[in-house]
Design brief:
- The chain has 95 residues and is an alpha+beta fold.
- It contains one helix and three strands, in the order H-E-E-E.
- The chain has a three-stranded antiparallel β-sheet with strand order 1-2-3, covered by helices on one side.
- The protein is elongated and about 70 Å long.
- The chain starts with 12 loop residues before the first helix and ends in a 6-residue tail after the last strand.
C-alpha cells in the first residue's frame, strides 16, 4: 500500500504510525504504576518482609511526581513498616 492522495485519511501510513505511537505511550502510562508496584512488592519480600501490602502507586511523568499510598510490611507477626502516604517529586532538568 503506497501513500497516495487518493487514499482516505484513515488509510494513510503516517496516520497508522501516529496511532500506533499514541497507543504505545498510553500503554506505557498505564503499565508503569503496575510494574513499579510489582517490583517494590517483590523487593520487599526478598529483603525480609513476609506480608507486604501496597494500596496504590501513582506516577505522573509529566509533573515528575510519584506517590505510594498505604504501604505496610510485616514479618514474624510484627508490623515492621507502615507508611500511610509517601510522595516524591523529581526535577527533570538537573537529570
Amino acid at each position: 500500500m503506497q501513500n497516495s492522495p487518493n487514499l482516505p485519511f484513515y488509510r494513510r501510513r503516517w496516520v497508522a504510525m501516529l496511532a500506533a505511537i499514541a497507543v504505545l505511550i498510553a500503554l506505557l502510562l498505564v503499565v508503569l504504576p503496575l510494574g513499579l508496584s510489582y517490583g517494590l512488592h517483590k523487593w520487599l519480600l526478598a529483603n525480609g518482609g513476609e506480608d507486604v501490602h501496597i494500596e496504590d502507586i501513582d506516577v505522573n511523568l509529566f509533573s515528575g511526581t510519584a506517590a505510594i499510598h498505604d504501604l505496610s510490611l510485616s514479618a514474624q507477626g510484627r508490623s515492621l513498616l507502615v507508611i500511610p502516604s509517601l510522595a516524591v517529586k523529581v526535577e527533570w532538568l538537573p537529570l
